[in-house]
Amino acid sequence: MMLETICETLVEAYHRNWITSRDGNVSIRHHDRDHFYITPSGVRKQTLQPDQFKKIGILHQPVDRWSWTELPYSDISSNLKPSGELPLHFGLQKAMGQHSNDVRVVVHLHPTYCVAAMHAGIDLSTVVNDFPELSRYTRVAPNVGDVPPISQELADQCHHNLQLDNDGNIYYDIVGIKGHGVVAIDTSPWRAFEHIERLEHICKIVLASRR
Ligand SMILES: [Zn+2]
């Protein structure tokens, strides 16, 4: 099951120093379900298990009013809270857009060189100009500026810069949040991971070239 795969990607992200133990969060939705799963808050990612995920129901009232509700999933997850970045994930999962016949995975991590590049004043969307190989597979949105973690403002700014529309279409594959991390979207955990890996690799090269 894909929740196991998500756990594997988070262990890998931890070993790459892209997160410390309790950082990072991931959500996954199948197109034909009106719920999604999200990682719990405050759990060590090295030991995260599929039955610790939180199940979130998507409610759609008329006139475009969306809301979420926690659904029962497993005994162990009932004692946990969803990731504090739930507003970020909910906005990206509530409508499936271009993934309407597929799966959507949203991954938020703190990759070292992406964060370092933004800290050095680089807009991640501009690095594709010098490294066209990156843009063959990954569309990079303009950076989100300084916004507080786990805030609606962070969610709104990410949604805006990713060009999320009302039908859930998302133009970009990844966006950086200054002083914080990145958010990547694709149809599987490893595909989303690869957007981060690709951008991280280029940011490492860019920073290594500076004197
Ligand atoms: Zn974060």
Outline the structure in words:
α3 (86-93) runs parallel beside α6 (152-161). The protein has a 7-stranded antiparallel sheet with strand order 4-3-2-1-5-7-6, with helices on both faces. It has 211 residues and is α+β, with helices and mostly antiparallel strands. β3 (54-61) and β4 form a beta hairpin. It has 7 helices and 7 strands, in the order αββββααβαααββα. The protein starts with a helix and ends with a helix. The chain is globular. It binds zinc ion (ZN). Zinc ion binds next to loops.
Summed up, what is this model?
It is built from 7 helices and 7 strands; from the N terminus they run αββββααβαααββα.
Spell out the key features of this protein.
211 residues; alpha+beta; seven-stranded antiparallel sheet; 7 helices; 7 strands; binds zinc ion
Terminus-to-terminus distance: 46 Å
- Computed CA radius of gyration, to the nearest angstrom: 16 Å
Give the H and E element order.
HEEEEHHEHHHEEH
The parts where pLDDT drops under 50 for at least 5 residues are none
- Strand % is 15-25%
Number of strands: 7
Kindly report the spatial arrangement of strands forming the biggest sheet.
4-3-2-1-5-7-6
Q: Averaging pLDDT over every residue, what do you get?
A: 96
- Going by helix content, strand content and strand pairing, the class is alpha+beta
The largest pleated sheet is described as: 7 strands, antiparallel
> Helix count?
7
Task: Give a list of the ligands.
Answer: zinc ion
Backbone shape: globular
Helicity range:
25-40%
